[in-house]
Amino acid sequence: MDSIFSLILIVVVTLGSSTLLGSKAQSIKSAHLLDLYIRNYTFKSLDKHFRTGIVQSVNLPANLSGIRVDTVRLRCGSLTRYGAHLKEFHLSSGVIVHPCIERVLLIRQNLGYNWSAIYYANYDLTGYELVSPVVGLLAYNTDEDVKSMNPFQLGIVAGEKPLTIDFTNITRFTIADGIIPLCASFEGDGRMTLAKPPPSSPSHVCVAKRHGHFGLVIASPPEQFKKRISQWKVAVGSTIGAALGAFLLGLLLVAMLVRVKKRSRMEALERRAYEEEALQVSMVGHVRAPTASGTRTTPVIEHEYIPPPR
Ligand SMILES: *[C@@H]1O[C@H](CO)[C@@H](O)[C@H](O)[C@H]1NC(C)=O
Ligand SMILES: *[C@@H]1O[C@H](CO)[C@@H](O)[C@H](O)[C@H]1NC(C)=O
Ligand SMILES: *[C@@H]1O[C@H](CO)[C@@H](O)[C@H](O)[C@H]1NC(C)=O
Ligand SMILES: *[C@@H]1O[C@H](CO)[C@@H](O)[C@H](O)[C@H]1NC(C)=O
């Protein structure tokens, strides 16, 4: 029996780890770490000719190819007063940057399809599939002399009107048979929220209350959406693997349950044998043991206090 347990355990563990190893290996696995690399390269790329209010694209090294970064430096006051437009992102007037002393550097990332894949590793996207690259909008403190500083992240919070993210130019998903993609918002704490695009806006436009990373997702696997064969293989393989794993785990549980049940039955048998033995002893000695110690009726207060009527 024990050898069966260990065999099942080994199979379950092997299945689990091979599924993990099978996922795409990227040199950077953490979405947050990627943000830090992009921040560092962006600040490094800015020179003294960088002018406030002018959007500039950032050159990244070859090992981050596929990621597009654009940046703009703004005065916090004018950002709040006039809002801003940075590629997919539109910030309406009233938007607040906090804490902001004077100027803010906005960084917009388009991770492209290759790098967006790390969001599958960092967030629980089971049942969903990205149909747009992940885009991000982050803010950092800055001043005129960008080189001499230690940038830290600032918060962007929408005023009355939300931020909007227009995926129309960057999604490869065309609405077919009424499937409207959902807006995924990837929060800094590892949570992901899904929302329908607001009914008033085009279906590839999402809204947000604050800075962060965003993407369009659809439930997967969709019947109408053609996937690459390799993706199918991965999906089918991992489904079968998961089913097999669940089945084996079920076997293991059943085996354990049977074992526990057997043991408790043995214990019950032993207890009964012991009780019968004790009964025989007491009958031999002509002593009637009290049937139960807890059955004496407890005294009841006979006359309840009844308050006199008023
Ligand atoms: C970014 O730059 C800071 C300051 O120069 C450094 O401490 C940090 O390790 C860098 N991070 C990455 C991910 O390169
Ligand atoms: C990219 O390559 C450079 C060297 O060219 C290296 O210093 C840097 O750490 C690499 N960055 C990442 C994100 O792998
Ligand atoms: C994405 O990855 C594929 C396969 O690894 C590669 O051929 C392609 O050049 C990459 N695309 C970009 C934009 O880096
Ligand atoms: C989409 O592309 C069109 C044409 O290139 C451009 O005019 C428009 O500003 C783009 N929209 C966004 C949100 O990037």
Automatic annotation (TrEMBL):
Pfam annotation, one family: DUF1191
Domain of life: Eukaryota
Keyword Transmembrane: yes
Signal peptide: 1-25
Transmembrane stretches, start-end: 234-258
Keyword line: Membrane, Signal, Transmembrane, Transmembrane helix
Record carries keyword Transmembrane helix: yes
Any one annotated GO CC term: membrane
InterPro entries: DUF1191
PANTHER family: PROTEIN, PUTATIVE (DUF1191)-RELATED
Protein name in UniProt: Uncharacterized protein
